[in-house]
Every structure is written in C-alpha cells, then in structure tokens.
Amino acid sequence: MTDFAQTLTHELDGLLRSDDLLLERRYPGGAPARQPLHTVYVPADEYTRDLPERWGARALDALDAHGSDLGRLARLLDLDAGTLEELMPRVRRKLEADPIEDLRIDFEDGYGNRSDAEEDAAVDSAAAELLAAVEGPGPGPGSFGIRFKSLERPTRARGIRTLVRWADRLAGTQAGGRGLLVTLPKVLSVAQVEAMVRACEALESKHGTALGPIRFEVQVETPQSVLGADGTALVARMIHASEGRCTGLHFGTYDYSAACGIAAEHQSMDHPAADHAKAVMQAAAAGTGVLLSDGSTNIVPAGSEEQVHRAWAVHARLVRRAFERGYSQGWDLHPAQLPTRYLMAHSFHRKEFAAAAGRLSSYLGRAATADRMEEPATARALAGCVLRGVQCGAVDPEEVHAEIGIGIEELTSLAHRPGPPS
After folding, report:
1. How far is CA 420 from the centre of its chain?
2. How many CA atoms lie within 13 A of 218 on its CB side?
3. H-type helices in 227-271, by residue range?
4. Cα gap 400→32, rounded to integer Å
5. Three-state DSSP class for 261?
6. Which regions of 52-110 does DSSP assign to beta strands (E)?
7. Residue 420: its pLDDT value, please?
8. Which domains does the chain possess?
9. Does residue 422 carry a pLDDT above 50?
10. Which residues lie across from 248 on neighbouring strands?
11. Confidence class for position 180, pLDDT limits 50, 70, 90
C-alpha cells in the first residue's frame, strides 16, 4: 500500500470507526440456531403434557383416513407421485417422533378474555404440565413459550400479570433455567418494545440465576408496526430497540388484514397487503439474526373428506409459497395441518438439495466443471438451504457428504460465514 493510500485509509478508519461498530452490533449476521418449521398455537386451558403425542396421532389418523390414495394425494398437493411415495415414510416418522417443533401456550386471542382467577389458574396448570413434559423421562418439547395479552392499555395489566406469574412458576426449574421465550402481540409502537425490554430486565433481576435470559418475538399484526406515523418502517426500529432480545418477527395474517380494511372473505396469507408487510419484515430482519415466521390459514382440515382435501390443498400451496419467498416457518393451528406442513417442507428441501449440491460442489472446487460463477452470498444461501433440509430431516448428512463432499460442520460454517469484514 502506498503512503498516500495508507494515510487516507487511516483517516477513513477514524471517520468510520463508530459507524463500523454500530453496523457490527446491529447486523451480526444470520442466527446459527436451528429455526423450527412451524409454531403450534394452543389455548392455554387446552394444553397438557401429552399434547405432542395427541397431535401426532391425530395427524397420522388424518393421513390414514384421507391420504391413503397416494396418487390422488399427489395431485391434490401438486407433487410428483414418486416424490410423495419417497417422502411419506420420512413424514410418518416425523409425526411419530417429533410432531411439534415449536409450541406457544396461548393466553391471548386463542384463549380469550376470562376472569383473573380463571386465567391465573390456567397459568398454574399450563406451567405444571409443561414442567412435567420438560422434566419427565421423554425428550420434552424442543422449543416452547407463551403468548400473553398485548401491552396496549386495555390488556396491559392482565398481560403483565400472566407474564410475571409464568416466570414465577418456571423460575428455579430446568425449563426456567433455559430462559423464557414469549410472544409479544399487537405491537403498535417502538415504545412498547422498549417497555418489554424493561419487563424482561425486571423479571431477570427479581429471580437472579433461577431464571435464564428472557427473549421475545414481535408479532407483526398491525399496520402501525410496518409503517409508522413518521413514514418509517417501525418494525426495523423495533428489532434494534429490543437490545438483542428479539428473536423473531411473526406475521399475524387476520389481525393485520382486518386492520387494513380487507373483507373477511379475502383475508389470506397471500393477499398483496400481507405480501407487502412480509417484504418489509424481511428487509428489516436481514442481517440481524432475527428469524421470520409467516402466519396461519384459518381453513383447517376438518369435516368431510372433501373439506379435508380442500384445506390440505390450500395449506400445501401456502407453505410452498412461503418457502419460495424465504419464509421457512409458519403457524399451524390444527393437528391435520402437520402432514402438509412436513410434506411440503421435505419436498421443497429435497428439490433444493438436488439443485444446490452441484452448485456448492463447483463453488468449493470439488466439481470437474462449473457452469456458473457463484457469488459468496449465493453460496451462503445455498448452504443455508441445504442445512435447513438436514435439520428438518429431509436430507441425510450422508447425502451431503456424498454429493457436496463436506460434512455438516463445514456446511454449517459455510452457511453462517460472515460477509466482507467492516
């Protein structure tokens, strides 16, 4: 480096030092933790320790009752019949062993408004059942939390009362030691996120080492959280106002659609208003490590076979669409949605693995010929998709080694390799 260039570089280092530090803090890169394929919401008074087993059994019953004709099911889900036949054993094993990847015990809309005594009792009962599941002989739920009532003035006191009682019940337990994960619904302002940070600090201070760190998801279900009164994307400011506690942005399909004035018959995960909101969320979360989750469909697979098939077709299309748009997680509200969730996840990742393996092998110099010039960012995206396929069980580690020539540790490193240093 010439003396002039070196002098200029040192000058610019000084000018940009604070900006470099700010960017590193605000955009640390993708989260290394596994992202669940879905979050299951269940009303608090309906939760018991055997919920995953019950949901898995009901999902398998639905498959047996309405999905035994694989050719018809393949046409319904827009899948190749051979692909469906290959995937079905994997999906059945998943439903038997690990049907619910992420659980929210719901004290908000799914639970409704009850008396204080009734909701207090539901908190106590749900906490006891969860602790029995976590501390029992089985594997227990992999990821879990609660959704409490919002920090809007009318529901603030009840929401905080539930949050405090939940923390009190889990403090000093194996589950509480892992920390709490909570969903903050109907967020209207950055100030509400800042208030949530203060609530987390107060609870951690109260319980000390008996309670692990508290993290929360921001539920984007109001237009105000996407576009503020000052014209800015408040959801981006909310992420950074969380002081590192925000782990995810979850889209609320129906509250958001209703607030935008969309008629009930046309409210859907694929409405243009929903797509706009999720595109803003996606841009706001990029590089922060905050995970994205799509919402839910209220068309559930229940009733006659015709009704179940109609709901499966809708759910499968929306799950595939979410994957294609970069949303690897969504909500499921009914056990019979699990078969289509996992079938579409596995089919997507099998297809993506077939396309990504050769490109990654070429990028890493392990292929004899290469027909593309891959950017490092594209290689990270390819590796990330393959890694998610391994994590959800759609791709076996042995296949990664055979097709790409690397192990899971190297794949993980490639998927989370940072961009150019600042």
Report:
1. 27
2. 35
3. 234-241, 253-259
4. 19
5. coil
6. 102-106
7. 41
8. 38-335 (3.20.20.360)
9. no
10. 217, 291
11. very high
